[in-house]
Amino acid sequence: xxxxxxxxxxxxxxxxxxxxxxxxxxxSDGRTISVPIEWxxxxxxxxxxxxxxxxxxxxxxxxxxxxxxxxxxxxxxIAGSPSGESHSSFKKWLAQRNSAYQKLKWAYGxxxxxxxxxxxxxxxxxx
Length: 127
Prior knowledge:
Blueprint: E1 13-18, E2 22-27, E3 32-36, H1 41-44, H2 48-51, E4 54-57, E5 62-65, E6 70-73, H3 74-79, H4 87-119
Antiparallel strand pairs: 1-2, 2-3, 4-5, 5-6
């Protein structure tokens, strides 16, 4: 028996959108691929701003989210392959993300307190 290999010509990504439940990629051949966002946990945990900060890489063969350190190949999307990231790797990323968020939240609160302290006007009231 002879098995012949089929070489697939993978179209390039031309546009990407992320909603609360779906990752949608427009391809150069006119197809639209939509997959559940749950396939990519980093996108699930991303803010709207982070999810919209993507760029096409590899001449259209992949998508990269800088803020989330996420890369998704068009070939993987067409094949129906969810994220291959291990659970331990994702947990480590999420812990680092949460730690950085808490530090940022503290710094913002600290700066807001100092600003409020400097701008508060004290009025002396004589009764």
